[in-house]
């Protein structure tokens, strides 16, 4: 559809029947949660063709990534949305309506859940968009459309966002539990799956036979904005050789993905159509945080971690301590736009990271007790054995 204009009739907007004054609380009573606030038209379909659901989460300003994700992921999606206040909720209403009218796969397969802060009602209200927004909802330009909508947030709302942390792990848990399939592929909103992933993964998981707790890693790569998103592993390898793609976080924080062993994954693979296990992760690194698929009985993301730092890797570390085995799949992959560079972190982000680091020490002690598995004791035992010899 081209040149679409959002109707002014509020009854036609997404979430028009949602009352945000109530909802279930998170465990700390910091956020209200609305599960299944808006269902995809085909989301309730439980056919055998839908073994994997993509679970993702986002704040309002990053939601423009969903159309590209949905273009490549032709299957079920569970999307957790965060609205800081009434203004952001109105932006979500209009932009989700826009996406559902413009993109069939979002309308049919994406189900949305909402999370709002406890002081949601204390922030400014915006009942509807000004008339000059008419004609600015072009289906060809989701980035431009969202940018125009975000301009209507007040300074007070923006200041609240700067002062308060984004509840990443709350959002991940909400998206995960919104999936109604056996397997869940948990990502962030700006992680784009490779094309044809859904049929390839469905075929693989029909015969997957895991005898213990398993997680299937999907390798992630940074892609230069000057390039076209690669439609195959072969095309991705060509971009890497040209310097237009590289492993995710390779330059900014190598431990983030290092254990995936990209060199092994990039070795020649003749089969581009069927998913298989490339190799097993044997060199698990502390702070490893791959994007993976698993049966949704994996440990939840600990909601004590707010903002940035130790949010995803704490959950993956608990999986490691619990005895999960990580298998790297090929030829499927995911991409993240932009070759990232090291740069100084803003003070607020470093503060959040330091606060979460202190929480992690407590978290780590708890999971060692929970699983009766303390790597420090194993290391000490090995050292003693060496001394005896």
From TrEMBL:
Alphabetically list the UniProt keywords. Answer: Glycoprotein, Glycosyltransferase, Golgi apparatus, Manganese, Membrane, Metal-binding, Signal-anchor, Transferase, Transmembrane, Transmembrane helix
- Required co-factor? Mn(2+)
Membrane topology, as annotated, equals: Single-pass type II membrane protein
- Superkingdom field: Eukaryota
What reaction is this protein's catalytic activity?
Answer: 3-O-[beta-D-Xyl-(1->4)-Rib-ol-P-Rib-ol-P-3-beta-D-GalNAc-(1->3)-beta-D-GlcNAc-(1->4)-(O-6-P-alpha-D-Man)]-Thr-[protein] + UDP-alpha-D-glucuronate = 3-O-[beta-D-GlcA-(1->3)-beta-D-Xyl-(1->4)-Rib-ol-P-Rib-ol-P-3-beta-D-GalNAc-(1->3)-beta-D-GlcNAc-(1->4)-(O-6-P-alpha-D-Man)]-Thr-[protein] + UDP + H(+)
Broad class of the protein's primary localization = Golgi
> Which terms in the Gene Ontology molecular function aspect does this entry carry?
glucuronosyltransferase activity; metal ion binding
This protein's pathway reads:
Protein modification; protein glycosylation
GO:BP terms for this protein?
protein O-linked glycosylation via mannose
| One CC-aspect GO term | Golgi membrane
Instruction: Name its cellular compartments.
Output: Golgi apparatus membrane
The answer to whether keyword Transmembrane helix applies is yes
- Pfam families the UniProt entry points to: Glyco_transf_49 (PF13896)
Return the similarity comment: Belongs to the glycosyltransferase 49 family.
The name this protein carries in UniProt is Beta-1,4-glucuronyltransferase 1
Q: What organism does this protein naturally occur in? A: Drosophila yakuba (Fruit fly)
């Amino acid at each position: 559809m081209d040149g679409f204009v959002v109707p002014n009739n509020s009854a036609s907007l997404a979430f028009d029947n949602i009352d945000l004054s109530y909802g279930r609380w998170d465990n700390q009573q910091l956020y209200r949660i609305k599960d299944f606030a808006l269902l995809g038209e085909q989301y309730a379909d439980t056919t055998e063709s839908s073994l994997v659901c993509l679970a993702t989460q986002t704040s309002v300003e990053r939601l423009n990534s969903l159309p590209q994700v949905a273009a490549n992921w032709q299957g079920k999606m569970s999307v957790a949305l965060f609205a800081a206040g009434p203004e952001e909720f109105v932006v979500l209403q209009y932009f989700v309506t826009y996406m559902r009218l413009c993109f069939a796969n979002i309308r049919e397969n994406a189900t949305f859940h909402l999370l709002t802060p406890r002081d949601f009602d204390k922030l400014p209200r915006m009942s509807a968009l000004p008339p000059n927004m008419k004609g600015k909802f072009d289906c060809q330009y989701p980035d431009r459309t969202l940018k125009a909508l975000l301009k209507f947030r007040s300074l007070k709302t923006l200041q609240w966002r700067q002062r308060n942390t984004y509840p990443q792990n709350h959002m991940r848990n909400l998206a995960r539990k919104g999936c109604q399939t056996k397997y869940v592929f948990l990502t962030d909103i700006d992680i784009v799956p490779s094309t044809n992933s859904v049929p390839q993964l469905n075929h693989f998981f029909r015969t997957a036979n895991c005898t213990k707790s398993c997680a299937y890693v999907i390798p992630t790569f940074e892609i230069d904005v000057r390039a076209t998103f690669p439609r195959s592993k072969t095309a991705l390898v060509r971009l890497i050789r040209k310097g237009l793609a590289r492993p995710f976080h390779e330059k900014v924080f190598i431990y983030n993905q290092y254990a995936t062993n990209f060199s092994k994954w990039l070795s020649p693979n003749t089969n581009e159509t069927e998913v298989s296990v490339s190799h097993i992760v044997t060199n698990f690194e502390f702070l490893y945080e791959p994007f993976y698929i698993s049966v949704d009985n994996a440990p939840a993301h600990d909601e004590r971690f707010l903002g940035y730092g130790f949010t995803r890797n704490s959950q993956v570390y608990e999986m490691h301590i619990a005895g999960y085995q990580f298998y790297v799949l090929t030829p499927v992959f995911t991409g993240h736009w932009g070759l990232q560079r090291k740069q100084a972190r803003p003070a607020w982000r470093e503060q959040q990271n330091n606060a979460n680091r202190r929480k992690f020490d407590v978290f780590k002690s708890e999971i060692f007790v929970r699983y009766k598995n303390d790597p420090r004791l194993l290391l000490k035992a090995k050292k003693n054995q060496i001394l005896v010899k």
